[in-house]
Write a structure and sequence with these properties.
With about 675 residues, this protein is of the alpha+beta class. It is built from 17 helices and 41 strands. The chain has an eight-stranded antiparallel sheet with strand order 26-27-28-29-30-31-32-33, covered by helices on one side. A five-stranded parallel sheet has the order 3-2-1-4-5. Strands 6-9-7-8 form a four-stranded antiparallel sheet, with helices on one face. Strand 12 and strand 13 form a beta hairpin. Helix 12 runs antiparallel to helix 13. The longest helix has 21 residues. The N terminus is likely disordered.
Length: about 675
């Protein structure tokens, strides 16, 4: 690195310019996160919002809020001119872009500068240099930062890409030249799969970043994804705040992160930190950035990319360094020097971040949408953070990323922090849509993860154990569910509320008589019949004998509902269960017990019918747009064969045939918008 001339943005005559009002050009949890620090420092906040977000948490948190357009991001959050206009109208001196949207848009950074508004991020030249994966690799090579062997040339013809992939050697990784977040990324194991992978990558890249160019890299087997947080000011200072391990991913997107990285020596930590600082200096960096490395099994590491913004996972760095990175951003934007020098920064303990997503892990992590009908979280503290932008009753929209929250914990060492994370996940309860919480619990208790044996292929390697079916409902849980249902009825009858509720059909159950009641549940395809006998009680606590459908009789003693009838406490089979969550939403009872979530449908005389699909049909899993149709009506297809491609939740989804057969109908064409649960194709 000796002979490399670093780009500098040093200005010796800089004067500190206090910022008193900022606009956050983002939404959701990151907008809320920035607002919390700003408010704590006495800085006024301005929110922008789309029509879909008019009732969102970030809108209500801000001192001022302005509508900037329809739900689609390209008509609202990606409209730089609209955001600049709001900044001027509101008197905001600076714009914080958050992450995603315009955060790594050099044109927007330039626009802010031209309009005399501070962009809380790096100079546009640095964004341009690091925004192109191919250009950034050239810069890193010149700066002496190790890079992965690959092709990142301008010739994008298929013949050239095939030739370069052959030179590199399979497996190779196809990546979009612009952007990140796993968009446009494809692993190719053999040459015959390259063309389809490149075309798919280009479609996703153009949809996400407006640029279809790709690069080809050597795909390293069993690598780890380790990134370094860097920070620089306009006075020539640049430091790193240590590393984060983000190896465990699905769909090439992070799902759980930790800091510091497990099994990383101090020597390697210093080498990677020094390389990250060199990378930042090479582009004249200013502000918060993250240099991402691939770490091989033999501890050699290679530059992957630099994200020129605050990362989603920044809270775990804050936890182990005891620093507020948003506060650092504000100081740098005011032309202050960095709060600390490198030798003053120390690692304290260990931190994990688990991303709570609306998605279905059992369906290849298919993103979902819907209403958060019930939401309760672990109690936040200095060692536990719930970073979120939603509340109970809010909708997870098809228009934006399906992340619900980030659960962040800290403790003195990795073992304690991981135990803390597991306990916190047990207390995170969501009803109304599919989430990955149960999957995160299995992941955090997996022996290999507990041992710190992580790599980017962790989920595929351990898929069988991570995707294991849910354990059968225990006798105790079923007895508690049936008892809680009866107690809810008792309380409701006593308060004379809603006679048309799901449990009103159970009849006049009175606690002054020994009565037997039959409770019926449906659990997926299983019909459950439970007999509940009231046998007495005092001081508001009731005793029951519950006869399960296997003939076993379970004693439920001193049963009582608490917390607005949403939890039950009772002695069951010699064990005391304290405040077990039991919630009814519409005609479904959900009970959370022993780290499991069980849903029990309460049968009704009239049940609504499901989607509009017919036998042999493929039904849209969510709203989206058809991007490619691979077959024609009359074609013969095999089970698993791709039928069409659908773009939804910023990702491309392949819809495959469930059977061998012939295509009878294809109701939708390319570029048509499809609603949820609509028939996409019929195979007979």
């Amino acid at each position: 690195m000796k002979n490399f001339r670093y780009i500098t943005n040093v200005n010796k005559d800089l004067k500190v310019k206090p910022i008193t009002k900022i606009l956050i050009a983002n939404r959701g949890e990151i907008a809320c996160r920035v607002m919390r620090t700003a408010k704590s420092k006495g800085v006024k906040t301005v929110a922008v919002y789309s029509e879909a977000d008019k009732n969102s948490l970030h809108v209500s948190m801000a001192d001022e809020s302005y509508l900037i357009g329809p739900a689609a991001a390209k008509e609202s959050y990606l409209c730089g001119n609209k955001i600049i206009d709001v900044a001027k109208r509101s008197g905001a001196q600076a714009i914080h872009p958050g992450y995603g949207f315009l955060s790594e848009n050099s044109d927007f950074a330039d626009l802010c500068e031209r309009e005399g508004i501070i962009f809380i991020g790096p100079p546009s030249d640095a964004i341009k240099a690091m925004g192109s994966k191919s250009a950034s690799k050239d810069i890193m090579i010149k700066a002496g930062v190790p890079t992965i062997p690959g092709y990142h040339g301008e010739d994008q013809s298929m013949n050239v890409l095939k030739s370069e992939a052959a030179k590199i050697g399979y497996p190779v990784l196809i990546k979009a030249v612009m952007g990140g977040g796993g968009k446009g990324m494809r692993i190719v194991e053999k040459e015959e799969d390259l063309e389809d992978a490149v075309e798919s990558s280009k479609r996703e890249a153009i949809a996400s970043f407006g640029d279809s160019r790709v690069l080809v890299e050597k795909y390293l087997v069993h690598p780890r994804h380790v990134e370094i947080q860097v920070f620089a000011d306009r006075h020539g200072n640049c430091v790193h705040l240590f590393e984060r391990d983000c190896s465990v991913q699905r769909r090439h997107q992070k799902i759980i992160e930790e800091a510091p990285a497990p099994h990383l020596s101090e020597e390697l930590r210093k080498k990677m930190g020094d390389a990250a600082v060199a990378a930042a200096k090479a582009v004249g960096y200013v502000g918060a950035g993250t240099v991402e490395f691939i770490l091989s099994a033999d501890n050699t590491f290679f530059f992957m990319e630099m994200n020129t913004r605050l990362q989603v996972e920044h809270p775990i760095t804050e936890m182990i360094t005891k620093q507020d990175l948003v506060e650092w951003q504000l100081k740098v934007a005011e032309s202050q020097t960095l709060p600390l020098e490198q030798e003053q920064l120390k690692i304290h303990g260990h931190s994990f971040e688990a991303r709570i997503y609306a998605e279905n892990p059992d369906s290849d992590f298919l993103p979902g949408t819907g209403k958060l009908a019930h939401l309760s979280t672990p109690t936040p503290s200095e060692t536990l953070r719930v970073e979120t932008g939603v509340r109970q009753g809010d909708e997870v929209s098809v228009y934006y990323d399906p992340m619900i929250a980030k659960l962040v914990v800290w403790d003195q060492d990795r073992e304690k922090a991981l135990r803390y994370l597991r306990n916190a996940l047990d207390e995170y309860h969501i009803i109304g849509l599919n989430t990955n919480i149960s999957f995160l619990k299995r992941l955090s208790t997996h022996p290999s993860f507990m041992a710190g044996e992580v790599e980017t292929g962790f989920i595929p390697i351990h898929r069988d154990s991570l995707m294991a079916p849910q354990a059968p409902m225990s006798d105790d849980s079923l007895a508690l569910a049936a008892t809680s249902l009866l107690l809810k009825e008792i309380n409701q009858q006593q308060s004379k509320e809603d006679p048309n509720s799901p449990w009103s059909s159970l009849g006049g159950f009175r606690v002054n008589h020994n009565l037997k009641k039959q409770v019926k549940f449906n659990q997926k395809d299983n019909k459950i019949v439970v007999d509940v006998e009231f046998v007495g009680g005092v001081n508001g606590k009731q005793n029951f004998n519950v006869t399960l459908n296997n003939g076993k009789v379970v004693e439920v003693l001193d049963a009582k509902l608490n917390q607005n009838n949403q939890t039950i406490s009772a002695h069951v089979n010699g064990r005391f269960y304290n405040n077990i969550k039991s919630v009814i939403v519409k005609d479904t009872l959900t009970i959370f017990n022993d780290g499991q979530q069980y849903q029990l449908d309460i049968p009704q005389d009239i049940k609504p019918k499901g989607g509009d699909g017919v036998l042999g049909s493929l039904v849209s899993p969510m709203p989206g747009k058809i991007t490619k149709v691979m077959v024609k009506v009359g074609d013969s297809v095999k089970k698993g064969q791709p039928i069409l491609l659908m773009e939804a939740m910023k990702m491309e989804h392949t819809i495959r045939s469930p059977i061998d057969g012939k295509v009878e109908s294809l109701p939708y064409n390319v570029n048509e918008i499809v609603e949820d649960k609509k028939t996409l194709a019929v195979i007979v």
